[in-house]
């Protein structure tokens, strides 16, 4: 069980110094995995996935996802898309906002373009590894609404893996519970009650660049 350290957020502490420490701790909960493929969601998930793959002796690769934002407030995700997959929408949220998947089609096309750009930067012409029958661990740096993780898991499920684990250092309790229907197992080191944002639980949670991702991938 984690005990929050004194942090910079009023009234709360933090659980992890940075994503690298979170990955090291997460790896200790994943020692059951044998020869896994670790698929990290860029950008932040790659910094967590790298120590996981290194500790488990698994292959590290990226699975690129993009949030589909609500146009007036793009930080509010109404869906997500992962490479090779179709958009996954929060239909209940769209209904409450008076919108439909068709009304954000132009946002989806923008995100498809950025998704394709990142795939080209991170993997070039290489396809995702063959996941048939493999143990797959999908890693991100945290779960808030879980939209991008859900989109990623559905793409992975279509590639006929042997077993799929979603692994995160921290996540909103309800989101973690909901995503158990999308994977064989969900491993979350912490599910705090007072969950407001993923970055709340890290002492250092700076944005990563494409160059940071390539460095972590050893490219």
From TrEMBL:
Q: Name one GO molecular function term.
A: glycosyltransferase activity
Pfam families (alphabetical): Pribosyltran
SUPFAM superfamilies noted in UniProt: PRTase-like (SSF53271)
Domain Phosphoribosyltransferase residue range list? 33-187
**What Gene3D superfamilies does the database record attribute to this sequence?**
3.40.50.2020, PRTase-like
Asked whether the keyword Aminoacyl-tRNA synthetase is assigned, the reply is: no
Query: Key word Magnesium present in the record?
Result: no
Q: Which domain of life is it from?
A: Bacteria
Q: Which UniProt keywords apply?
A: Glycosyltransferase, Transferase
The UniProt entry, under InterPro entries, shows: PRTase-like, PRTase_dom
What's the name of the protein?
Answer: Phosphoribosyltransferase
